[in-house]
Amino acid sequence: MVTVEGDTGTRKLVLRVAKNGATNVMGQDWINAFGASETLRSLLTNKKEVNAVESRTQNDVCTEFPEVFEDGLGHCTKVKAHVELKDGVVPVFRKPFPLAFAMHDAVGKELERYVDMGVLTPIDRS
């Protein structure tokens, strides 16, 4: 138990720390202690809208910013991606997730689209 001072006063709350770099989760008791429940609820439930400053048509915006609306994926040019792997780590085989038969065609088409865009590379084994 730790003593926490928030918008609603001082409270004693249970502090849980996750192991091995897992994401720590703030429970409802902590959210309430900081008076953030209404803010979080509104973020999760409110409809989000973008209001235009000027009255512009979709075609005007598409014409002015064509690179934003191109087909396919863009490229990250601001930072260089790097994945750190621990030494001696062996890949783990996992069986595929179950997929409803009715979804096979749609998923297959989407996978083909990713391969065509260069996002995925087909392999013959896992």
Describe, in plain words, how this protein is organized in 3D.
It is a single chain. This protein has a domain at 2-45. The relative contact order is 0.06. By secondary structure, it is an alpha+beta fold. Strand 1 (2-6) and strand 2 form a beta hairpin. It is extended and about 55 Å long. The longest helix has 14 residues, at 104-117. It has helices spanning 28-33, 37-45, 58-64, 104-117; strands spanning 2-6, 9-13. Strands 1-2 form a two-stranded antiparallel sheet. It is built from four helices and two strands.
Topology:
Elements: E1 2-6, E2 9-13, H1 28-33, H2 37-45, H3 58-64, H4 104-117
Antiparallel strand pairs: 1-2
Number of beta strands: 2
Global outline: extended
Average pLDDT number = 79
Order of helices and strands: EEHHHH
How far the N terminus sits from the C terminus, by CA atoms, comes to 46 Å
Low-confidence stretches: none
Strand residues, percent: 5-15%
Give me the Rg, rounded: 24 Å
Strand order of the largest sheet: 1-2
Q: What's the story with the biggest beta sheet?
A: 2 strands, antiparallel
